User: Fold this.
Amino acid sequence: MKKFLVAIDQGTTSSRAILFSIYGKPIYTSQKEFRQYFPKDGWVEHNPNEIWSTVRKVLTDVIVKSKKLKGKILTIGITNQRETTILWDKKTGKPVYNAIVWQDRRTADFCKKFKSKNREKLINKKTGLLIDPYFSGTKIKWILDNIPQAKKLVKNNNLLFGTVDTFLLWKLTKGKVHATDATNASRTMLFNISNNEWDKGILKSLKIPKNILPQVKDSSDDFGLTDRSITGKSYPINGVVGDQQAATIGQSCFTKGSVKSTYGTGAFLLINTGRKKIYSKNKLLTTVCYRLKNKSTYALEGSIFIAGAGVQWLRDKIRLINNAYETEKIVKSKENNDGVYIVPAFTGLGAPYWNPNSRGLITGLTRNSDWKDLVRAIIESVAYQSYDLFESMRKDGLKPKIVKVDGGMVINNWFSQFLSNIIDTKVVRPKVKETTALGAAFMAGLKIGVYKSLSDISNYWKIDKKFTPKISKSNRTKLLKGWQQAIRKTLV
Assistant:
């Protein structure tokens, strides 16, 4: 009988479930998009019930497929958009408000006031993060302050918080499990990454009751069983890990100094720093890379808010393209960028600027500019933003020679080569592109003994294509100078 692992990959724009062989090969994928809600400028929301219904649908699809293939599902792993915040009624399971997405900037004013109280150093030391609307903590506070039902449920001890993984666990187990893992907890701005506990001081300062928070487990752990009424039979859930950390695991970045960069809706650069927490002097984040047997491995992370989301903007809002795959042909048809730059600060800027008030900007337009320049400028902007992250890393004394890349954008060979040119570093793309889902499957498999160790998992990582820098120093300098001028205009 064939043996399978299932990964639920709940992302910012869609939910997927992937059936993997125990050798890390994707066998079957089911994917379903869901609506994005933008009620006000800088606000980004999802409907938690839509998230749940899409997850249930894609999970059912892969379970049916496994039966058709006469195989057995051994375990399920979950990976998820991380900082996105959901609060729900403990008795009914009904959300009290829409999920506030990681991109949402509604708490920017509060964060600004909170910073002024000289808290950022302390919070950075405890959590590895900066005070920013990006993280879950201030999103929870906003719901508690603004939604009457949340206030009522808190008083009655009937309110629960979770990032998306926690909400899905709750739903899949029919309310039996209220838990998360250390990687997701470390993105809330409430979790002390040194003592592995919710921080009482931070909770008090934000007026968030501890009893609404989930239990924090290892990334590879027992997270309960799915309920038969949902999945037909009970399946164990043995892996939970935030999406960027999952991609790091899927890329087998287990050695200190190894680096991956994921290009999905946003883009995220992580470098494994081992058992040592490195605090950046250049506004990168310190985070839990994974936790096994109650021992954390740490990472430095740089976050770009708009990567593939820029391509979606071209498709859905500006309607310059029909699908993402067209972009490679379009950018290749241009000899250069004609001096056109787009800073896609649609939801503010992430690392290293951390400016929630920045907004998108197009610069360098002339009478000769056309729609293809805009497409190219969006694709190029992701490489330039990556350069900013690599520069921060280098200033912190970390100089990676190779970066492993993944995510939808890196299928574009032109982009992968341009990225290598701009960051002046060798770029390596793996054979299995679904590294985020693969990381969740690996964590689940590790717990039940499918894999004996992390080095055992590393054996399944294979290279698809390498990209080495192929650009003159003068051209690279010219391109980066144009980008830096554009960025400065958004920071005014």
In short: The CA atoms of residues 201 and 247 lie 32 Å apart. Residues 2-242 form a domain with the Nucleotidyltransferase; domain 5 fold (CATH 3.30.420.40). The radius of gyration is 22 Å. The chain has a mean pLDDT of 93.
